[in-house]
Amino acid sequence: MFLIAVAALAVLTGCAGNGEGAARIQPAPAAAPTTPQAAPTGTALLWPVTALDQARTLQDQVDGGAQPWTLDPEEVARNYATATWGWTDPEPTSSTPGAVTLADPQGTAALTLVQPVRAGTTGIWVVSAATRS
Q1: pLDDT per residue over 79-122, tens digit each?
Q2: Considering the domain boundaries, does residue 85 fall inside one?
Q3: What are the record keywords, sorted (predicted)?
């Protein structure tokens, strides 16, 4: 029985005979990382924080239950437009991870948002760029 197992292993790995026609076991390709990554160091932070240490402090506060709106990129975009431009009724017209387009009676805006501390559902969002028209 042992010799049969060794012979089978030799055939599968191509070690038997000249290896022609022998099956070769190939390693599985490396899977793409599935864990979201935080924004790279050096990414601009405009609002509600402007520095990485402030973002870490805010993330700690959110982890403790404060300011849960910072976990929603659309809410962050709305609050930015209200606080920065005085918009009274900003509404998202499109939203993808990291980008929100807003419309308001006063105009439209495209915002880029990042997660500077932690990516995923528990990471805060921060505006990193905004273009208003």
Answers
A1: 999 999 999 999 999 999 899 999 999 999 999 999 999 999 99
A2: yes
A3: Signal
Yes or no: say if 128 and 113 are a contact pair by the CB < 8 Å rule: yes
Domain count, the chain: 2
Same domain, 83 and 115: yes
Q: What is the DSSP code string of the chain?
A: -HHHHHHHHHHHHT-STT-TT---PPPPPPPPP-S--PPPTT----BS-SSHHHHHHHHHHHHTTS-GGGG-HHHHHHHHHHHHH--SS-EEEEEETTEEEEEETTEEEEEEEE-SS--STTS--EEEEEEE-
Q: What is the pLDDT of residue 97?
A: 87
Q: d(Cα 2, Cα 117) in Å, to the nearest integer? A: 55
Contacts of 76 (CB under 8 A, 6+ apart): 47, 48, 69, 70, 113, 125, 126, 127
- Whether residues 117 and 77 fall in one domain: yes
pTM to 2 decimals? 0.71
Answer yes or no: do 70 and 122 share one domain.
Answer: yes
